[in-house]
Each structure stands twice: as structure tokens, then as C-alpha cells.
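Bench notes, afternoon.
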Amino acid sequence: MPNLTDVSVIKDLCDRYGFSLSKGFGQNFIVNPGICPKIVQAAGIDENYAALEVGPGIGVLTKELAKQASKVVSVEIDTRLPELLQETLAEFSNIEIVQGDVLKTDLRRLIEEKFQGLKVAVCANLPYYITSPILMKLLEEHLPIEHITVMVQKEAAERITALPGTRAAGAISYAVHYYAKPQLLFSVQPGSFYPPPKVTSAVIQLVLRKAPPVQVDDEQAFFKLIRAAFSQRRKTAANSIASGLGIAKSEVTEALQQAGLSPMVRPEQLTLEDFAKLQKFIKK
């Protein structure tokens, strides 16, 4: 069983399979042997779970997941990796590699076909450049997932988990809190990766809600409103929303007043409940 956190082993595998790390795919392999067991433990995955992984790399986290979960399915976009993974994961019979782009994959169908009768958890070391699109796909599609435990750039982790209505919050903070209960678990230093990234990473967990904390008639319009509000966050919410939605500022100002909100309020001062009320009056 190769030690996949040993840089010399990684280099040997890359040489033998003619594999070079791709910046385009955001490939940074975990070489700190304590990190992946810690992630899996934090995820609370056991034999009652199936694990869905995005981007297995050379299989460091995949192996740890396979030790605990009943089944692991890893979606990998890089066509060069499946052959290498056949070697690094050869000892496990409960792992399946699915070739494809997770953003274009029918995840509901994949879960139904691969994970029948098991609770499903997502666990992954996500590429930094597509963290938000992957998370939003997992959340917006209302998939039968218990929780999502992923490693992302620390700056993104702090924004994702920020409480709506606080200065640190952004549009994605509101979306995540609508669908899930997020928590920043722990940080991971650049030296834990090969090659080391220029930024610190962090592991976050999103526990999916059974029902959202606010009721809205149209989720798509609700999040369009929030994105518009944060499109120019240095401006007041009235200016940003008017510009983002292409409507008169007077209409937004009136809606804010009807919702009991100040016309001068800034986007990050608004809560999910505030946006839900505001949407009703803007619709009218």
C-alpha cells in the first residue's frame, strides 16, 4: 500500500503515469498524514453512510473515506487520473471512480443509482477556483444529502460560514444559511499540501436543513435579489438592488420602507428575514 502523503511516492506515481499537476484543475495533493483522517472523523462518516467525493486527486482522502463508509463514489474531471487511481486504491472494493465534470453530472440520478438505502454525505478537498459553483449545485438541487464536509480556501470558508447580517457576509453566506447550517471546523496550513498553495485552507461543514429558515415563493428570484444587493456592496442596498435588477431606485426605496427597513441600509446589514420581506414588496 503506497504512502500517498509521501512526496517521493507522489513524484514516482506522477513519473510512471506521465502525470503533471494541473493548475487549471487546482490540483494540490494533501501530504500531511493527519489531515484526511481528521476530515473524515469530523464528517462523522461510518458504515451507515455512502460518501460522495469531488476530485479524488491521487486518492489520499478517498482511502480514508473507504475505511469508514460503506461505499465511496468519487467524481473526477481529469481524464489522466483514473488509471493512476486503479493502482493507489487497488486494496479497496468499495470505491468507484466516475469520470466527469461534477457541475455537469446528474447528481440526483448518481445518488439514486449508487447509494440505495444509505445516508449520503459529501466529503472533498475542493478546487479553490470552483468552490462556490460546486457548493451551490449541491445545495440548490435539493439532493438527499445529510451534510457536506469540504476543504476550501480559508478566506472562502470565512465568507461561506459568515452569519447573514454581519460585515463578513456576502451573497453566498445568505444562500448557504438558507439551505444549511454551516460551521468552520479547522484551518490547514499551506505546508500540508504538495505543491503548497499560497493561501491557508480550512475545513467547513454544512448540515442540510429539513426546511429553510424563511419561506419564499420563488427561490430563484429571492437569490437574484440578494446577488443584486451584493453586486455593489459599497453602495446602499437601494442603489445596488436598483442597478442589479434594472428597476427604479424609488421602487426599491418604497419596498424597503414597506418592509420596515431604512432606505439607507447597506446589504450586509440585512438578514435572510429582511430579504424575504423585501422580495414580497418588490414583487408587488
